[in-house]
Design brief:
alpha+beta; 12 strands; two-stranded antiparallel sheet; Lipocalin; globular; 8-stranded antiparallel barrel; about 20% helix
Length: about 190
Amino acid sequence: MKIYFCIILAVLVSSCTHYVLNDAGYIRPPKSQKFSYKKKSASLNFALIDTNSIYYSSNGYFYKNDKGSKLSDKYIRFYGDGRFKLQGLKKSPPELADINNPDVGVVGYYITQGNTVKMQIYTDIDAGSIQLEYGYIDENGTLIVMHDNPRVDFNIGYNEKKIRRLIDKSPFSPEIYKKTPINGLTYLAPNW
């Protein structure tokens, strides 16, 4: 009887997630997941996003006025077909093998509108869901991303001017990703 109960419990618990783990242990969306940005990737501004570099964030802080709230280092690699991967780092700088490996990192799709970059990230929140992150590319080629999720606190349709204003008003530090050229960057087709 205990064995049947454990089997039924395991089936019920495992059926509550809407994501899969790849062989590297990272979350991937199910094949049926719909990304609205996927359809819009044909209109990407390739002069804005450098797909031959990574965007690297280090020494960031959660709150603007609290240097004790350090964020872990991470990078974003953008692909030319509208996909990207975001990878948190245990040690810095990122390793070339991980940067080139599409199986490593959290994944999603992005679009560009003017200087803004809007990202849909697939996470394990709510047993698998799409989260939004908005940012802009400044005059130095640096990606500045709002720390707040626009879906939670704000309306969804806004531009670089509004993103800048919301970052200025927020108690949270924006996430700053510096464009970093990488020697040995190779392209393996993303598999999500």
